[in-house]
Write a structure and sequence with these properties.
Helix content: 25-40%
Mean pLDDT: 93
Shape: globular
Radius of gyration: 23 Å
Structural class: alpha/beta
Strand order of the largest sheet: 2-1-3-4-5-6
Number of helices: 13
Length: about 450
């Protein structure tokens, strides 16, 4: 039995992958620990979307390497950075033992035990052992299907596909995650049904471009895309209360999906719809395959069909060639839409992506200035959207203690707003209404209306 420490960087997909790895290790008799200094195995599940995420993981692994001077420890990188850098990571960090790519998460437990066995067999001064596995593997999208529970989870991520075929010029994901591969609908439904039997009330369907699910594997039926067919099948599961998904792409947001929000009550009123830029020139350089006008038209269609829809987004500032005029077009579009929230990122050069070799790279101070300016716009709209809830009653699903104040509980509205309130264990895992009395923009505060 070994003590395993896992730290995850990046998106919900990475969180879900780490959960799968943890479950497999626990099933083999190992135990998880939150203390890296107490661990026999240290695993960092990495992200490559931005350089900062890679540098954080490299720095963390370098710092943790000091543990090996006190006692034998197995070290491993998993995920996207492992996939993109492969063998070269062993040259950077001599104490590293495992480099496991994005299509090999189901092999991690096996590789960890091989490394542990080598550690046991060797002298303390002969611990060099390494495995690098970043090869593609057919069917790997079906291997992320098990969940780890502590008995109180009410919301869960469910991976429905892997990979991406869009090849946006700034993005490394198609190179780290591979081509689009989707799981069969019955397999996903079985997984979610098992989650519901264990108390889960809400699921979030995950995919790199989730609304393009199944487009290469499964046919349309009754003019409905495979993704809408999947949502309908999940909607039929007794005991499931809410369905979310992330992240879609504007080009995959067809009328059948818009209509699904109106006719399927378990599908909540929240869409995370990445924009990236409000300049058509920059969108073209990004290879985003839509225009600012088409994006705005889609927002109008969604809001006309579902007036209460919460819309969030991602925006990149400082993309190569972005002029002041391009940025102002982005700023204007963000202000026009009035997003409930937005994740604003400074463009980060990613090796081997087309954008990395583009001319007219934007200086860092200009990126920083635009980043702060756009955040001011986003924050103003978030406050405005939040203040509209004050005095109203909203339905929440209570998830447990608040992350910022353990003496209070928190839950989420259907539109994904966090609500903090005073309650007790009897509220956890329940759906009920809360009257909102205060808003900070991103967080709402209130009191349960009636709960017996």
């Amino acid at each position: 039995m070994a003590r395993i420490f896992i730290k995850t960087y990046g998106c919900q997909m990475n969180e879900r992958d780490s959960e799968q790895v943890a479950q497999m290790l626990v099933a083999r008799g190992h135990v998880m620990t939150l203390d890296a200094e107490d661990a026999d195995v240290v695993l960092l599940n990495t992200c490559s979307v931005r350089d900062l995420a890679e540098q954080k993981a490299l720095g963390k692994m370098g710092m943790l390497g000091a543990l090996s001077r006190q006692r034998p420890v197995v070290y491993g990188f998993l995920g996207c950075m492992a996939q993109s850098r492969g063998q070269s990571l062993l040259d950077t960090l001599p104490h590293l033992n495992l480099v496991i790519g994005t299509q090999k998460f189901h092999r991690v437990a096996e590789y960890v035990e091989q490394a542990l066995a080598h550690r046991t067999a060797q002298r303390r001064d002969d611990l060099r052992f390494s495995i690098v596995d970043v090869a593609e593997e057919s069917g790997s999208q079906n291997s992320i299907r098990d969940h780890q529970f502590d008995g109180r989870e009410v919301s869960s991520f469910v991976s429905i596909m892997q990979g991406c075929n869009m090849h946006c010029t700034f993005c490394i994901v198609p190179y780290t995650r591979g081509a689009e591969r989707s799981r069969p609908i019955p397999e996903i439904v079985d997984e979610i049904r098992a989650l519901v039997e264990r108390g889960v009330k809400e699921v979030t369907l995950l995919g790199q471009i989730v609304n393009l699910y199944g487009r290469h594997e499964f046919p349309k039926q009754d003019n409905k895309s495979p993704f809408v067919q999947l949502i309908e099948a999940v909607h039929e599961i007794d005991g499931l209360e809410r369905i979310r998904f992330t992240s879609p792409h504007p080009i995959g947001f067809r009328q059948d999906l818009v209509d699904a929000f109106k006719r399927l009550p378990k599908l909540v009123e929240h869409v995370h719809l990445p924009l990236q830029s409000g300049s058509n020139c920059i969108l073209k350089r990004m290879h985003r395959t839509y225009t600012a006008e088409k994006y705005l038209a889609l927002v109008d269609v969604i809001r006309n069909r579902c007036p209460d829809m919460a819309i969030t987004t991602d925006v990149i500032v400082g993309f190569p060639g972005e002029t002041d005029e391009d940025y102002q077009q982005t700023r204007q579009l963000v202000d026009e839409v009035g997003f409930d929230n937005a994740f604003v990122f400074k463009y980060s050069t990613r090796k081997d992506t087309p954008a990395a070799g583009m001319k007219d790279q934007v200086p860092e101070p200009i990126k920083e200035e635009r980043n702060h300016d756009l955040l001011d716009v986003v924050n103003a709209w978030s406050r405005r959207r939040g203040e509209a809830f004050v005095g109203r009653e909203v339905e929440i699903l209570c998830e447990g203690p608040s992350k910022t104040n353990a003496s209070r509980l928190s839950g989420r509205t259907r539109g994904n707003k966090i609500v903090v309130f005073e309650g007790s264990d009897r509220h956890i895992g329940k759906l009920f209404r809360v009257r909102i009395h205060r808003s900070t923009g991103y967080t709402l505060y209130g009191n349960p209306v009636i709960f017996s």
